[in-house]
């Protein structure tokens, strides 16, 4: 049982507004103050969370909150008199009023036992430079609390590493589970264990049947043409824990609420998430297999091309497009994944998830006479082995696997061999015990764009001044010139998002007015997806054009730098930097 992202966000907002209406925060502060005065003896140096929770329960605050929120058996039957709110974090001035029904109640223990979605726990490590590393990913079975005495239980979870270290223990996590509100009736341990055993048996049987079907399907595919054995037809992929999953289970329509407005903005968001290939131990030039689950990908804020493609495909499906992930190769035979959308009119569009670029596919017809002009592909893709989404999996069975001659008529089984939709549904549809838990809703960015832009700009000014000082040059900043660079940075980001260039005429006119006759202006824009000023400056200096500006010497040299941070959901951001200088030209 899971709620759509929009409904879940709406419910969270209503709960927050009800808590505000009841002034719960003030009551908690009063209880905290009383507890500290009355119960914190001199020998105790700190008040634990458990002590505070007991005090809240003793004073009836928890019961008041539960009664006021009025939990319901079926969330879909709940009526809210206000209009639905977007999944962002703001509170309306007029709190919505819950329309209460007489028969509303909390789901009972038996109903909750049927909810098989686990709690996904992701552990990441962040170093001093802001770089994140995925440490562990664990799916917690929470239903043991349904049979626990007093509805409270403690479990010790051993966490293991990811990727090549998925068999290496990284530590033990002690977790306390407690059910609120209290259930009227607990289940016996035998009933809970029986349910778990039945689910495991059912999942194992579905996985076995799907594997049998997949092997038979693969044999049929090879009988079409023996050379198909060399094509990249990816039916299963390992997640961060080394578990083999059908590739279709990594895709699910994902709605972004009010956080992303268009498919192209979604493509831009995915492209500014960091790119990092899974680490490989040893040589040989091979690629480590690791497709991250969505939560792990978003928590670490970076991933491989498959992670980007899976997320972009899910978002485009959420926007109502017929989207597929394509698996094939780029130049030099490098394996790659990208996204394709299939229009109602048959238009095929490729979306590069690492850059946000879009390409219209027009196949070359090799049988046409030489005099017929053929389209020139602009995309970087060379071969394609298969396409898939959450419901379909199709393998390319055309004579050539070259993308430029490929015909994407997915309904023609002589060109694309499909897998059974029912077979895919048995192991990949929502609610199946073998699939990943529901995708988490995207969160609004916690980054303040203006503050972060100012901080980075000041740090870059210090770095430039120190660098010039080491060279024996003085540094004079032109604040007005720095400000005039802002429109250019905004235009660059707009073009990356929409493909439309605008505002260049005004920028050129402003710069000409700011640079006196007989002076020269030079500018160098660059784009990053991280917020580390020292790392960005070191990268900039590797460009001879930027170094020429930063190390400019001459008469009346004035320097300028402008930083503009554009924020996207989660912690994704696009950072645009422009260095510039003006100086008097001397012949």
Describe it for me?
The chain has 587 residues and is α+β, with helices and mostly antiparallel strands. Helix content is 34%, strand content 20%. The chain has 16 helices and 18 strands. It has helices at residues 5-21, 24-39, 49-58, 61-69, 109-113, 189-224, 263-271, 294-300, 305-318, 421-428, 449-470, 479-484, 486-498, 504-514, 533-541, 544-550, and strands at 119-126, 132-140, 152-160, 169-178, 236-238, 244-246, 274-275, 302-303, 323-329, 335-342, 348-351, 358-361, 383-388, 393-396, 416-418, 519-528, 555-567, 573-584. It has a 7-stranded antiparallel β-sheet with strand order 12-11-10-9-13-14-15, with helices on one face. It has a 3-stranded antiparallel β-sheet with strand order 16-18-17, sandwiched between helices. The longest helix has 36 residues, at 189-224.
Helix-strand blueprint:
Elements: H1 5-21, H2 24-39, H3 49-58, H4 61-69, H5 109-113, E1 119-126, E2 132-140, E3 152-160, E4 169-178, H6 189-224, E5 236-238, E6 244-246, H7 263-271, E7 274-275, H8 294-300, E8 302-303, H9 305-318, E9 323-329, E10 335-342, E11 348-351, E12 358-361, E13 383-388, E14 393-396, E15 416-418, H10 421-428, H11 449-470, H12 479-484, H13 486-498, H14 504-514, E16 519-528, H15 533-541, H16 544-550, E17 555-567, E18 573-584
Parallel strand pairs: 7-8
Antiparallel strand pairs: 1-2, 3-4, 5-6, 9-10, 9-13, 10-11, 11-12, 13-14, 14-15, 16-18, 17-18
């Amino acid at each position: 049982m899971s709620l759509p992202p929009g409904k879940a966000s709406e419910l969270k907002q209503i709960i927050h507004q009800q808590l505000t209406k009841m002034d719960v925060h003030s009551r908690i502060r009063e209880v905290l103050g009383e507890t500290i005065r009355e119960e914190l003896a001199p020998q105790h140096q700190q008040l634990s969370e458990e002590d505070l929770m007991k005090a809240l329960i003793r004073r009836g605050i928890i019961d008041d909150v539960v009664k006021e929120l009025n939990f319901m058996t079926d969330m879909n039957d709940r009526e809210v008199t206000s209009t639905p709110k977007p999944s962002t974090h703001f509170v309306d001035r007029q709190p919505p009023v819950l329309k209460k029904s007489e028969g509303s109640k909390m789901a009972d223990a038996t109903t909750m036992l049927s909810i098989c979605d686990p709690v996904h726990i992701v552990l990441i490590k962040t170093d001093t430079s802001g770089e994140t590393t995925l440490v562990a990913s664990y799916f917690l079975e929470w239903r043991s609390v349904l049979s626990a005495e007093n509805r409270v239980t403690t479990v010790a979870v051993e966490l293991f590493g990811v990727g090549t270290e998925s068999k290496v223990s990284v530590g033990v996590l002690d977790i306390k589970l407690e059910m609120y509100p209290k259930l009227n009736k607990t289940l016996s341990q035998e009933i809970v264990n029986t349910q778990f055993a039945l689910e495991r048996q059912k999942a194992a049987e579905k996985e076995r049947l799907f594997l049998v079907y997949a092997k038979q399907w693969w044999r049929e595919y090879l009988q079409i043409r023996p050379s198909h054995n060399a094509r990249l037809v990816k039916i299963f992929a390992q997640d961060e824990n080394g578990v083999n999953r059908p590739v279709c289970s990594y895709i699910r329509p994902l709605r972004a609420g009010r956080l992303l407005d268009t498919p192209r903005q979604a493509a831009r968001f995915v492209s500014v998430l960091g790119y990092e290939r899974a680490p490989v131990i040893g040589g040989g030039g091979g690629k480590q297999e690791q497709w991250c689950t969505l939560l792990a990908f978003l928590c670490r804020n970076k991933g491989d091309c498959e992670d980007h493609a899976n997320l972009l495909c899910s978002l485009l499906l959420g926007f109502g497009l017929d989207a597929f992930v394509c698996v094939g190769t780029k130049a030099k035979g490098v394996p790659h994944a990208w996204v394709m959308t299939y229009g109602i009119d048959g238009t095929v569009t490729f979306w590069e998830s690492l850059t946000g670029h879009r390409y219209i596919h027009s196949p070359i017809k090799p049988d046409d006479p030489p005099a017929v002009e053929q389209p020139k592909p602009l995309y970087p893709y060379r071969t394609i082995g298969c396409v898939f989404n959450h419901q379909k999996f199709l393998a390319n069975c055309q004579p050539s696997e070259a993308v430029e001659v490929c015909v994407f008529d997915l309904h023609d089984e002589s060109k694309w061999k499909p897998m059974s939709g029912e077979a895919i549904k048995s192991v990949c549809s929502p609610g199946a015990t073998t699939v990943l838990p529901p995708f988490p809703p995207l969160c609004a960015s916690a980054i303040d764009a203006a503050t972060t832009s100012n901080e980075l700009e000041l740090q870059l000014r210090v770095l430039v001044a120190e660098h010039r000082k080491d060279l024996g040059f003085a540094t004079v900043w032109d604040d007005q010139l720095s400000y005039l660079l802002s429109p250019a940075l905004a235009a660059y980001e707009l073009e990356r998002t929409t493909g439309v260039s605008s505002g260049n005429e005004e920028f050129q006119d402003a710069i000409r007015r700011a640079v006196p006759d007989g002076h020269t202006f030079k500018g160098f824009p660059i784009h990053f997806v991280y917020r580390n000023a020292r790392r960005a400056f070191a990268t900039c200096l590797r460009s001879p054009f930027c170094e020429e500006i930063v190390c400019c010497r001459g008469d009346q040299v004035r320097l300028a730098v402008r930083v503009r941070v554009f924020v996207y959901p989660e912690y994704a951001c696009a950072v645009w930097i422009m260095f510039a200088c003006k100086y008097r030209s001397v012949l």
